[in-house]
Write a structure and sequence with these properties.
This protein has helices at residues 7-18, 37-54, 61-76, 110-114, 118-133, 136-143, 149-164, 167-178, 180-185, 190-206, 213-225, 233-237, 242-252, 264-277, 281-294, 299-311, 315-328, 333-345, 349-362, 367-379, 383-394, 401-414, 417-430, 434-447, 452-476; strands at 86-90, 97-100, 104-108. With 477 residues, it is mainly alpha-helical.
Length: 477
């Protein structure tokens, strides 16, 4: 996929349309803002659609569930008032995480590679939530009252380019549109960074983590990339200095040494990511086996070896490797999902079904388990049951394009052609392609011409998407 080169100008226009100059509230007391919280929410959702349509993402329900649940837990102890969060998990091994206006939280897969403990991972996410809670985007705009909205949008476009790893080409595009000023706007001010560190530390402690993880991660990153000409994007947008580390360390040391540093579940998720970015599953298997030889009790390494063996088709060996983990923790959802996947790969569908049923009694609303159950139903050729299960999943994940994509596929298999086009429309809308979304609803409406109520619902949804599309076209003029 070609990433982002046409997107940067589109973004600049898009945000100008969503908050045109005539719609801006005037600056008065400290409570007023050039960009209101509701405008931020609208801008963020529009930007997220474009990002999803341009950048490769990780479609891993377990990783998505971990990121979402962990950040929601952090948000409960944060200063964030509007907790309508949306997440995007980017398929990149580079270190990066970001928060965009309106509650958009982005995480590169590479964050799991660089953050060695859950507390380090949480320190990055707490920092990003602090940027959201303090509305640093809007406050930065207020600090430059004459700044035009397209310039603000270009700052967001820079986040997109960074998230996608657009490299020199992406940076050149930004510079050609708004020159060096945008490079400055892409970076939070030193004051904002210090504020996000301070508030993030408070949030970490309240959430039960060891705040010392934040300066520890900063120190390791600075040592690792001190002499690199091109450090990770996270360090470009969040510069780490000796003084910043010292300040963060001094503040962290004021807290009692009682917060947790790590969890097994985080290390299991790290193993999944490590396998994703290893050159071959065989290389990953050797690495995990070497870790086990050094420390036979390292459950995350054993789990990683299971996944690597499954990827290389060594199903019997994977089962033997997994058995001690299930024996130690028979109800663990991650291990049981691995066994279900293993049984499905070995065509032991009855065994997978029984395990699925037992897990559903323990974790009735677990998203990865629901997705695994749908995969099993498809493997069993129980298409109508899979379609019903996906409809249930949509009740809690109606904004997940990955789910809508699968809904379209399954509705096609079941012969539900109208539903297929409706699902495709929702998918395209979520990835910012309104033309395709509206076209899909045209197909659905034609098919539903003999069903007045259904055709009316489709027509109403098409009008909604047409209005969103109108805003996009308005900005392109």
């Amino acid at each position: 996929m070609t990433l982002l080169r046409p997107t940067l100008l589109t973004l600049a226009c898009l945000f100008a349309a969503h908050t045109g100059a005539s719609d801006l509230p005037s600056l008065g007391d400290a409570s007023s803002s050039i960009v209101s919280p509701q405008q931020e929410h609208q801008l963020g959702r529009a930007w997220l659609g474009l990002l999803r349509g341009q950048v490769s993402q990780l479609d891993d329900p377990q990783l998505k569930d971990f990121v979402e649940s962990s950040v929601y837990r952090l948000s409960e102890t944060s200063q964030l008032q509007d907790r309508r969060l949306e997440f995007v998990l980017l398929n990149s091994p580079q270190l990066n995480a970001f928060a965009a206006p309106g509650g958009i939280v982005g995480v590169n897969g590479g964050l799991f590679l660089y953050a060695q403990t859950e507390a380090e991972y949480a320190s990055v996410m707490a920092h990003e939530l602090a940027h959201l809670s303090q509305r640093h985007f809007a406050r930065g705009v207020e600090a430059q009252q004459r700044m035009q909205l397209p310039l603000m949008a270009a700052m967001l476009a820079g986040i997109v380019a960074a998230a996608a790893g657009a490299g020199d080409a992406g940076i050149a595009t930004i510079m050609s549109t708004q020159a060096a000023a945008i490079q400055e706007q892409r970076r939070f001010s030193r004051q904002n960074e210090q504020e996000a560190d301070r508030i993030g530390l408070v949030n970490l402690e309240k959430a039960g983590y060891d705040p010392r993880a934040m300066p520890s991660m900063f120190e390791r990153l600075m040592r690792q990339y001190r002499y690199d000409a091109k450090p990770p994007e996270f360090l470009l947008t969040h510069p780490v200095s000796e003084s910043r580390i010292a300040d963060t360390r001094n503040r962290a040391e004021q807290y009692p040494v009682e917060g947790r540093e790590d969890s097994l579940r985080y290390q299991l998720m790290r193993a999944r990511v490590q396998l994703t970015y290893e050159e071959t599953p065989g290389v990953a298997a050797k690495r995990f086996r070497a870790m086990l030889d050094e420390n036979p009790g390292l459950d995350a390494a054993r789990y990683g070896l299971v996944l690597a063996q499954m990827k290389t088709g060594q199903l019997d060996e994977a089962g033997k490797t997994l058995a001690p983990l299930l024996s130690k923790a028979p109800d663990d959802i991650v291990y049981n999902l691995a066994q279900i996947e293993l049984d499905m790969a070995a065509n032991r569908l009855d065994a997978a079904d029984r395990r699925q049923a037992r897990m559903r009694t323990l974790y009735p609303s677990n998203y990865p388990l629901q997705q695994s159950g749908i995969d099993l139903l498809l493997k069993q050729q129980r298409i109508p049951d899979a379609e019903r299960a996906l409809d249930d999943l949509l009740k809690t994940r109606s904004k997940d394009p990955d789910v809508w994509y699968q809904v379209a596929e399954v509705r096609g298999l079941s012969g539900n052609t109208i539903g297929l086009h409706q699902a495709r429309a929702e998918f395209f809308a979520l990835v910012g392609d309104y033309n395709q979304a509206i076209e899909q609803l045209d197909y659905a409406k034609r098919r539903a011409s003999n069903n007045f109520q259904l055709a009316s619902r489709i027509d109403a949804r098409q009008r909604e998407l047409s209005e969103e599309k109108r805003l996009v076209e308005q900005m392109l003029r």
